[in-house]
Specification:
The complex is a heterodimer. Chain A is α/β, with parallel strands linked by helices. In chain A, about 30% of the residues lie in helices and about 15% in strands. Chain A has 16 helices and 13 strands. In chain A, strands 3-2-1-4-5-6-7-8 form an eight-stranded mixed β-sheet, sandwiched between helices. A five-stranded parallel β-sheet of chain A has the order 9-13-12-10-11. In chain A, helix 4 runs parallel beside helix 5 and helix 4 packs parallel to helix 10. The radius of gyration of chain A is 24 Å and the shape is elongated. In chain B, strands 2-1-5-3-4 form a five-stranded mixed β-sheet, with helices on one face. The model of chain B has no long low-confidence stretch (mean pLDDT about 95). In chain B, about 15% of the residues lie in helices and about 20% in strands. In chain B, a hairpin with a 2-residue loop joins strand 3 and strand 4. Chain B is α+β, with helices and mostly antiparallel strands. Chain B has a single domain, classed as Ubiquitin-like (UB roll) (Roll), CATH 3.10.20. The chains are: A alpha/beta, B alpha+beta. Chains A and B meet through strand 5, strand 7 and strand 8 of A and strand 4 and strand 5 of B.
Chain lengths: ~400, ~90
């Protein structure tokens, strides 16, 4: 990668700050000036974006763009280390900018308080050299990939799920001695159907994992900028934190790839929510459960207020909780006779349910229960409804003493 | 031979991360896996019987799609298969 502009020489303060880089012959003054001239866009200031932004700032990346429109939530704090306890409720961008400047006041922060969309992605990307994907949903990941391919910028990719991570550099432009690298679509031509792969909000994530993966992304970003070492191009790193095993898979450029192949059929950004089969409001870069989830269409629902009044009126309603036992321990509707059958067991324990009875199914936020309602209706249960918003909505609107998770 | 299962697939396979199966080709090994854990089938294969577009199968570190014999590639006991679906978490 070539530095876009010739930067000013380092001040004495900067020389002191970057001393341990400067005495490293592989980085040296030349590498440090490349870092200073570099413009890196970090999409998302969450789990991956936190360590990434902090280390890139410390390393002396001159311009750091951050795209995020979310506010800090208490449930972010166990992994999004750029945000502190006192930041809960504040915009993530404000919080991130403060920390970046606290670490290194020489960094120019460019804030984009917006959701990345097909309408703004190319415009935002144009002022940056490297794009780092720290998002949490499939539509935005395909959008970032396509915008990187179309604008010829490398996509430093990382994703996480529970105890596992994946990292690579996609869409690396061709340079002297290196061909253009495979893109995300070469590896994953299609997204999973909505709901098939749970989000971190739904499936949980080990707090340190985004730290591990985000720092692999930060390392690759610095290598791209300085030209050091062997970049993670054409290779997918699989990280298993439980086994503490790092494995590597070879990635190839798919000659039939619709965006980077020889017969390109995607020539501009498309509607990624439609591509991923989710409704326009369903996908989001925010982890809030109300916003991230997708539901099968037109399932009968009940609000928490309706359920409460029916239960208080002693109507004969069977409350079915389809979460996991460890979630039931956090909070439950056991006082109302709720029965726990985890989603994965519903099929084999179906005989425990009465098709004639009025059943209201709930989970944490309403996604898993919607799948169960869909399944039970196919099995001939006619009086089954989904509890909209799940037990989180109950905690928000009915019982404010109930813990949320 | 061993088949590595990533976290999203483990709920369909008794929470196991590695499953031992026998088979002389990739297709046979995959059939053995599915017969042991039938719930995996819907996740890995589409209704038309093809591997889903968000799931990759690797023989050692090579994507099966790029092997000349694809799913009919021969296996040795020391080989490993890895099933690798896309994941999107990051926040």
């Amino acid at each position: 990668m070539t530095a876009p502009t010739k930067s000013a020489p380092l001040s004495n303060d900067e020389i002191q700050r970057y001393a341990r880089h400067l005495i490293l012959p592989e980085v040296g003054m030349e590498g440090q000036l490349k870092l200073k001239a570099a413009r890196v866009l970090c999409v998302g200031a969450g789990g991956l974006g936190s360590p990434l932004a902090m280390y890139l700032a410390a390393a002396g990346v001159g311009t750091l763009g951050i795209v995020d429109f979310d506010v800090v939530d208490a449930s972010n704090l166990h992994r999004q280390i750029i945000h502190f306890t006192q930041d809960v409720g504040r915009p993530k961008l404000t919080s991130a900018e403060e920390k970046v400047h606290g670490i290194n006041p020489n960094v120019t922060v460019r804030k984009f308080e917006t959701r990345l969309t097909s309408a703004n992605a190319l415009e935002i990307f144009k002022d940056f050299d490297v794009i780092v994907d720290g998002t949490d949903n499939f539509p935005t990941r395909y959008l970032i990939n396509d915008a990187c391919v179309l604008s010829g910028k490398p996509n430093v990719y990382g994703s996480i799920f529970r105890f596992e991570g994946q990292a690579s550099i996609f869409a690396a432009p061709a340079t002297e001695g290196r061909q253009q690298g495979p893109c995300y679509r070469c590896v994953y031509p299609e997204p999973p159907p909505p709901g098939m792969v749970p989000s971190c909000a739904e499936g949980g994530v080990l707090g340190i994992l985004p730290g591990l993966v985000g720092l692999i992304q930060a390392t690759e970003t610095i290598k791209l900028i300085t030209g050091l070492g062997e970049p993670l191009i054409g290779r997918l790193l699989l990280i298993d934190a439980l086994a503490m095993r790092f494995r590597e898979m070879k990635l190839r450029k798919n000659p039939d790839c619709p965006i980077c192949g020889t017969k390109r059929t995607i020539t501009k950004l498309i509607d990624y929510e439609q591509f991923c089969g989710v409704g326009a409001t369903a996908a989001s870069q925010s982890p809030s459960p109300e916003k991230t989830q997708t539901m099968p269409n037109a399932l009968p629902e009940m609000t928490v207020e309706e359920l409460k009044s029916k239960l208080d009126a002693k109507e004969n309603i069977f409350v079915l909780d389809v979460r996991e036992p460890h979630e039931y321990q956090i909070c439950n509707l056991g006082d109302y006779g709720a029965k726990l059958i985890p989603m994965g067991d519903v099929q084999k324990r179906q005989q425990e349910l009465d098709p004639e009875q009025h059943i209201v199914v709930h989970c944490r936020s309403g996604v898993r229960s919607a799948k169960v309602v869909d399944f039970l209706r196919q099995q001939g249960f006619e009086k089954v409804q989904n509890l909209a918003g799940g037990i989180l909505a109950w905690a928000d609107r009915i019982d404010k003493t109930m813990p949320k998770y | 031979m061993k088949i590595f299962l990533p976290t999203p697939l483990r709920p369909y396979a008794d929470k196991r991360s590695v499953v031992d199966v026998s088979g002389s080709t990739i297709a046979e090994a995959m059939r053995a896996l599915i017969s042991q854990y039938p719930d995996l089938k819907g996740y890995i294969y589409a209704d038309d019987g093809n591997v889903r577009g968000f799931v990759n199968i690797y023989l050692n570190d090579e994507d099966v799609r790029y092997l000349p014999a694809k799913m009919n590639a021969a296996l040795r006991d020391s080989d490993t298969l890895t099933i690798m679906p896309s994941i999107a978490g990051g926040r």
